[in-house]
């Protein structure tokens, strides 16, 4: 099954994620890719506006009252939406038994850094203002959304707000300068991403800032005081070293960190929950981690 999924991704989504493909087409293909994914049974969705930010509220069949996940989608800061990530976010909500908020933060190049972080921070502040207990809320994200989760947690700390109960990072992209060794060694192994596309995304998102600016790349930021963090990554992905290096940096900065490398799977393999055993296992372990840290 792993080989079948990798082949399918490499022949459908990967060609679409290219600087040579018009951005409108990239965004459409990213959303359409979700149609082949399986969601959990019995969840409901509702769109709402949080300020100017369209947010999908996902309600699993069974929920623990007062608990939630703020999920920040991936897509290199240039693609991705509630459509592309609703099923993945729903799997997390279903496993943890909590409501999920999935905001459509502003994307680059129309809105470069720090627009995405500002939107994520605004949603977090609004949830707290509306009575959400930070000790009963997790911030999670995949790929660029994993990096954005860290940038948002840093902004929360700088604003003097309480940290969420925990952070969950799936295949996080944390270094927009693309200096990780796996970006050279894993080109043929990653079924979804290419260094060329990531470089293009980084240029679009960082705008006039340096790629190594802490406001773009959390690998180069002060991470002290952040919430306990879980990182899951696959052996077959370009961003393997991003995950390994950010785990080391978090530990060095005094953050409680738990990380795991899954063998033989690719970028954000949790998309294939319900199909792939490693994805199901990862989702279960995320739920266990969440339940340990939620009040």
Report helical residue fraction.
25-40%
What are the segments in which pLDDT stays under 50 over at least 5 consecutive residues? none
Give the biggest sheet: 8 strands, mixed
How many strands in all?
Answer: 8
Write down the overall mean pLDDT.
97
Strand order of the largest sheet: 1-2-4-3-5-6-7-8
Structural class by sheet pairing and helices: alpha/beta
What is the H/E order?
HHHEEEHEHEHEHHEHEH
Describe the protein.
With 295 residues, this protein is α/β, with parallel strands linked by helices. It is built from ten helices and eight strands. It has helices spanning 2-11, 13-16, 23-32, 82-96, 115-129, 144-158, 182-185, 195-206, 240-252, 277-293; strands at residues 44-50, 53-59, 68-72, 99-103, 137-142, 166-170, 229-234, 257-262. It has an eight-stranded mixed beta sheet with strand order 1-2-4-3-5-6-7-8, with helices on both faces. Helix 9 links the parallel strand 7 and strand 8. The longest helix is centred in the C-terminal third of the chain and has 17 residues, at 277-293. The termini are far apart. The model has no long low-confidence stretch (mean pLDDT 97).
């Amino acid at each position: 099954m792993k080989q079948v999924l990798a082949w399918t991704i490499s022949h459908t989504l990967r060609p679409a994620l290219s600087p040579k493909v018009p951005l409108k087409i990239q965004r459409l293909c990213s959303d359409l890719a979700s149609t082949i994914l399986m969601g959990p049974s019995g969840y409901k969705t509702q769109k709402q506006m949080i300020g100017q930010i369209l947010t999908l509220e996902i309600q699993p069949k069974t929920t623990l009252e007062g608990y939630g996940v703020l999920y920040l989608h991936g897509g290199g800061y240039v693609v991705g939406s509630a459509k592309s990530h609703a099923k993945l976010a729903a799997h997390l909500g279903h496993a943890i038994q909590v409501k999920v908020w999935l905001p459509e933060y502003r994307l680059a190049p129309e809105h470069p850094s720090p627009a995405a972080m500002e939107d994520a921070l605004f949603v977090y502040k609004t949830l707290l203002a509306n009575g959400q207990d930070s000790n009963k809320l997790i911030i999670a994200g995949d790929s660029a959304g994993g990096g954005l989760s860290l940038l948002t947690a840093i902004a929360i700390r700088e604003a003097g707000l309480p940290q969420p109960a925990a952070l969950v990072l799936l295949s996080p992209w944390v270094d927009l300068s693309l200096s990780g060794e796996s970006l050279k060694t894993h080109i043929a192994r990653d079924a979804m991403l290419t260094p060329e596309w990531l470089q293009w995304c980084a240029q679009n998102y960082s705008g006039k800032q340096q790629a190594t600016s802490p406001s773009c790349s959390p690998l180069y930021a002060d991470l002290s005081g952040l919430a306990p963090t879980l990182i899951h990554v696959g052996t077959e992905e370009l961003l393997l070293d991003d995950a390994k290096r950010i785990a080391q940096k978090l530990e060095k900065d005094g953050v409680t960190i738990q990380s795991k490398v899954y063998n033989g799977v690719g970028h954000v393999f949790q998309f294939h929950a319900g199909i792939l055993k490693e994805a199901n296992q990862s989702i279960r372990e995320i739920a266990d981690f969440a339940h340990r840290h939620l009040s």
